[in-house]
Write a structure and sequence with these properties.
Blueprint (H helix, E strand, L loop, with lengths): L1 E3 L5 E3 L11 H4 L20 E6 L1 H4 L5 E7 L8 E2 L5 E7 L2 E5 L5 E5 L4 E4 L5 E5 L6 E7 L7 E2 L9 E2 L10
Parallel strand pairs: 8-13
Antiparallel strand pairs: 1-2, 3-4, 4-11, 5-12, 6-9, 6-11, 7-8, 7-10
Length: about 170
Amino acid sequence: MSQKDDHGHPHAHPAPALAPSPDWRDRGVKVIPGDQLDPNTAQTPGMSRATAINQARAGAEKIWAGTVHIHPDAKTGAHHHGDLESVIYVLKGKARMRWGEALEFTAEAGPGDFIFIPPYVPHQEINASPDEVLECVLMRSGQEPVVVNLDIEPVETPTEVKWIDPIHNA
């Protein structure tokens, strides 16, 4: 890789040496086949989660990743994931998210969209399609399968919230 020095001239830096490790074969890259995910993880009513990446299956220390499927017109109960951050990537279908103390806010996401859920945010995933399964990839910032199901009476008409990029002006 070439970088410029203090005078703007390019020069190369040697790559840092890797610590010797005799076990890269078993402690290196893992490919988990999509048909071998583990459904034995914390569940929320209205959805099916399956684990791909965690400590036991892949040796991950800081993240959890898997899939979630929500049937047509189905919705989860209100819940949160404790101090974990979550990211949902929509593969297929249309997700409607509701969040807040009375699920008073809403936004929708489709294929190719990412959804970020901060720690402790009460939320609900809804399949906004009456005839298509909502398929997503789910990632969390920790290993614990934290799902705290909540008894929330949602507002009848939530406020739609559009995302505004805070670092790039339109």
